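Sequence in, structure out.
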Amino acid sequence: MAKLASTQQWWETRRDRFTLYISQVVLDEVARGDTEIATKRLNILRDFPLLEITDAVKSLAGDFLARSNLPPKAADDALHIAAATVYNLDYLLTWNCKHIANAQIQKKLAQVSFDAGYELPTICTPYELMED
């Protein structure tokens, strides 16, 4: 199933079973690109609870970059993962399989999280979170 179709199906059938959160990093990302489309994305997210990018989040993101195989260009990805981890979320939903939903990277991220006193959330795609 294609990414867009999977995401739409998850959004229509499953999202109400979860409390969804975003961070300023998410808002910055969805604001990029075509103004009209970006505005539509921002409107969809306007009522979602916003996770603050605290010093703890920034510190853990720095640890992820320093101690895992995340490349320096993945600084925003590290912030996404760190926010979900510090705020003790159950899941981090993403289609970024290069730097976030990547089993080899997650193993190292889990160790860094554990060493910092946190538990890495389950990181998966919407497709993987379709069933109970």
